[in-house]
Amino acid sequence: MTRDTGAPVGDNENSQTAGPDGPVLLQDSSLIEKLQRFDRERIPERVVHARGTGLFGEFVPTADISSLTSAKVFTPGTKTPVFVRFSTVMGYRGSPEQARDPRGFAIKFYTQQGNWDMVGINWPIFFIRDAIKFPDFVHANKPSAVTGVQDPNLAFDFFAHTPEATNMLTHLYTDEGMPDSYRHMDGFGVHAFKFVNAQGEVHYVKFHWKSRQGIEGIRPQDIQHSIGADWNLMTDDLYNSVKAHSYPQWDLYIQVMSPKDLAKYDFDPLDDTKVWPSSIPEEKVGTMTLNRIPDNYFQSTEESAFAPSRLVPGIEPSEDKMLQGRLFAYADTQMYRLGANYNDLPINRPIVPVNNNNQDGKMNYDDRKGEVNYEPSTVGEIAQNARYKYVQTPLSGTTQQTAIHKTLDFRQAGEYYRSLSDMDKADLITALSGDLGRVTNDTNKYTMLSYFYKADSDYGTRLAHATNADVSRVKDLASHLSDN
Ligand code: HEM
Predict the structure, then answer these.
(1) Which pLDDT score, from 0 to 100, does residue 413 have?
(2) Which atom of ligand 1 is nearest to the CA of 189?
(3) Residues ≥6 apart with Cβ < 8 Å to 446
(4) Side-chain-side CA neighbours of residue 123 (13 Å)
(5) Cβ(167)–Cβ(413) under 8 Å?
């Protein structure tokens, strides 16, 4: 055993004291170091997605899509190492893994062109469509600022003013809102991104990971027992499966839209509360296999840093207003959570060399050398290639603060509800009415019921019955809502 300096330790179980009964000596620097290190073991947990589980694996492309993107991660014949972190959203770091929550599905691809992060979830949509609402959305859904306990009164107070969440709430309260395993769920990039090919041509693209293990959720009547039996279910299931050499796999599918088609739909294709229609076919482009458990939880899962802004040539962000906010927020929180040099940590380090003039900062140990730490320079120029410039996007209009025009807040929620089996519908009503029934503010409760009724009258009526609400009042409120 050694100290942090490498010097040998003689006794790790007995502090140095003044005589047999005397006080402990300050000169026992090995003891002091041990206590100091222990005192500093925790870093801030993620502000959201604090409870997570990571696995290493690989991504193999299965189709040549070079006509769409120059990203080398899709070059046939390549194999790209990945690190995936699955998570719940609202709970604390040690909270039970069975929670009614979306599940984070974040993938870091260590590509030959630098790291690409796809920071998605297990559904194709989200609750809100503008990043400016995200802190409010999280505050209302995280544990109360007074009690430290989650409260549906706060959540539905927010959602009663957020009709665009109706589609996502409908997903959340199905059995898929309580997956029985991280292996048993799909993943989605949610937002549209841009694929850019070698000629600089742009296509909008959505990503969908389809689980080869199928999709399974926990039914409402089984949740309590499941939590009681093992509230680390998701991690135990995932790691036990890898230990048994049963490696979970997902196939990656894409939907592609030409920029000229953006305006042709009655919804906004860059609105992340919407799915793209099935008339835009899904094309399989690769397979991901997860096969290795990290041997250090903190250094992998806790210190990993995913960001939707971490893109590679050939993949760019779309103009989606949520995505645009996310492009800023993740690297920002990571500089706070892990420090300015977080990209040097082994889990975040690219497999290709990093070469720029960013330097110094706390805990810096990167490879930058030499005194030319500026550019341009005659003696130390770092080559740049104009073909990696961002693609040019046409603009119109004025600066403004306005909501999107095509809101269509309810229709896709209704379509989704009608696509569910009888059992799934019944479980949705049970789970959603359980939380709605706890809402004490009548205005908020009836507003929420009117949103679900507007999505589908059977859906709203069943929820109204299950929460002892007056159906005719719900129906009347819904008749004043527009859906365009
Ligand atoms: C503007 C809206 C959003 C903001 C500001 C935001 C912000 C954040 C922040 C600050 C973190 C913690 C990151 C860290 O500490 O490393 C985080 C984690 C995460 N977010 Fe978001 N988020 C937003 C929307 C979304 C959406 C729409 C999705 C799904 C597509 C999403 C998926 C995730 C995932 C999966 C993680 C966990 C990543 C990990 O495992 O480390 N977020 N988000």
Answers:
(1) 98
(2) 30
(3) 469, 473, 474, 477
(4) 25
(5) yes
Average pLDDT over residues 93-118: 98
- State mean pLDDT over 11-37: 97
Q: Which tokens is 80 given?
A: 């790209």
Which atom number of ligand 1 is nearest to the Cα of residue 49? 37
Mean residue pLDDT across the chain: 97
Query: For residue 258, how far is its CA from the centre of ligand 1 (angstroms)?
Result: 27
Looking from the CA of residue 86, the nearest atom of ligand 1 is: 40
Report, as an integer, the average pLDDT of 52-72: 98
The helix or strand, by DSSP H or E, that contains position 141, with its residue range, turns out to be helix 134-141
Nearest CA to ligand 1 atom 30: 120
Question: How sure is the predictor about 142, in pLDDT bands with cuts at 50, 70 and 90?
Answer: very high
Would the CB of 127 count as within 6 Å of ligand 1?
Answer: no
Ligand 1 centre distance from Cα of residue 348 (Å) = 16
pLDDT of residue 263: 95
**Architecture in CATH for domain 52-344:** Beta Barrel (2.40)
Q: What is the number of helices (H) and of strands (E) in the chain?
A: 13, 10
Domain residue limits, the chain: 52-344, 411-479
Q: Looking at residues 275-292, what average pLDDT do you find?
A: 98
SS3 70: coil
For ligand 1, the distance from its centroid to the CA atom of residue 247, given in whole angstroms, is 26
